[in-house]
Amino acid sequence: MIKEPLEILPGSNIGRGGMKRRKPCTHMINNHYKKTLEEFQKITRIITALSSSQEVDDIYSIILCALISPEGLNFSRSFLFTYDPKFDTFHGNMVLGPSSQEEACDFFSQMQKEEAAINTIIEAHRKKTGPGEEDIWDFPLSGLKVSSLWISMVQKMGFQNPLTDTIRRLSYSGYGKRKNEKFFHQICKDHRPRIIRQKRNPHGFPPGLSGILDIPFLAIPVTGKTQPYALVLVDRKFSNLSITSEDLQNLEWFVNQASLSVENAMLYQDLQEAYNDLKQMEMLKSNFLSTVSHELRTPLTTIYGFVELLMDNRVGEVSRDQRELLYRVAMNTRHLINIVNDIIEVAEVRTHGMSTIKGKSVHPVPALKAAIAHVQDQREDKNISIDIQERDSVPPVLADRLSLERILYHLLDNAVKFSPRNGRVLVEFHQTEGELQIAITDRGIGIAPGHLRRIYDYFYQVDNKLSRSFEGLGLGLTVTRLLISATGGKILAESTPGKGSIFTIVYPIAKQKKNL
Ligand code: ADP
């Protein structure tokens, strides 16, 4: 014989025969289970809807919808007042719900129609997936149903309601002397929803609301950790139901969830604004640098041209001493033109992004010679030798001639700059598997590992004090890396502080035409 299950009742004494047989009431259990499941589905739907947007205004709309939808918390109207921290004031913002009995019928029948339409979609899904699988579809589609329903409700009715105009004229300052001005602030301070049962209550009742809200109504604060965001008021006007203390209990989780969603959206909005401001600043800086540099490049190029004319005796004979001085002017002007070109290069890459330059067959040795000529002055001043190895067997590479010259110039300029007097800079060529490596070695001050990672950053210098002993803007290696990437090469740096550095650039070897 199968025995009925045993149930231990509170206060029962097992030892003294307190164990009683009881038939479980399946009907009650089923009802209880159904109610809990429905409650759980409702919460899931509302949370899904609240997390479907990162826009503060959308979240407010969803909050208002969730409060009045029969699929949500089933109030009949919701009124939104948003907080303005600048003036410590609440402003009437939006209303969702009917403003007259006539409108109420229309409003709720529209809602039902919308719901029926979405239910048809759900049914179609259920038929497709078969009876055993319907649970899989139940939750996502309920979420979808409630989100789309609420959002389209706000779009259809939220902004056309005559109540909205009335509410938008209302604002309540925190500094007001009258008691009723503090109503909003007091409720937000408590962080808990509250039922207002009479017009005269301990915190006063704002006069502007008297003719609009039904009594009793519920005040729901939406607050962050440090400040209020909004206050939502809901009532059950034009409805058969009334506001009860059970509503208050149901709202506990909703208040937390709504506050969290608004807080997240606010943070996201702040981050977005800060990011946009930064991007704008970056753009302005790049445009400014680019404009100033373009303005400098033209006169500098003219100066350089005229000095060359003078040195070539084209406007009269110049003495040896004069030529010497003119040469210095020309070299310094060249140096300035290089700096201006670097700034323009970097500013343009930062504003418009990097463009690629198609590689052509380039002989590296002439490019190297041209680069050495540009550092001649600095080299002679410090009596530094630049030695080249394996010059004869160097193959052409796939690169851009002018870029390669500028890259080599920057690397040689640094090698000379950071070498001691009477030092030696070595340029070596190595061929490996279709690539040519050009290594520039110096025995200068070297770079510590922590800095080595950052030397290609914009305006980065290991010694960035104003009293530093080396000239420069911290752009040479930035431009070098940009040019190398644009022309299909690579750059590697090795360095030991106090011993020196090796900068190696790598380019693919260009296919050479065979001599028949
Ligand atoms: P700068 O115009 O200041 O030389 P770069 O972008 O060319 O700017 O180089 C960035 C920094 O990297 C330099 O300020 C320097 O601190 C370090 N650096 C670059 N090349 C060398 C080198 N060969 N030896 C030592 N330090 C170097």
Task: Give a brief description.
The protein is 50% helix and 16% strand. By secondary structure, the chain is an alpha+beta fold.
Q: What do these coordinates show?
A:
- The protein has three domains: 24-243, GAF domain (Beta-Lactamase, 2-Layer Sandwich), CATH 3.30.450.40; 276-352, Helix Hairpins, CATH 1.10.287; 360-508, Heat Shock Protein 90 (2-Layer Sandwich), CATH 3.30.565.10.
- 50% of the residues lie in helices and 16% in strands.
- It contains 13 helices and 15 strands.
- Strands 5-4-3-8-7-6 form a six-stranded antiparallel sheet, sandwiched between helices. Strands 10-12-13-15-14 form a five-stranded mixed sheet. Strands 1-2 form a two-stranded antiparallel sheet.
- Helix 1 runs parallel beside helix 7 (245-311), helix 3 (101-129) packs antiparallel against helix 4 and helix 8 (320-352) crosses helix 13 (476-486).
- Adenosine-5'-diphosphate binds at residues 410, 414-415, 418, 442, 444-447, 455, 460-463, 472-478, 501.
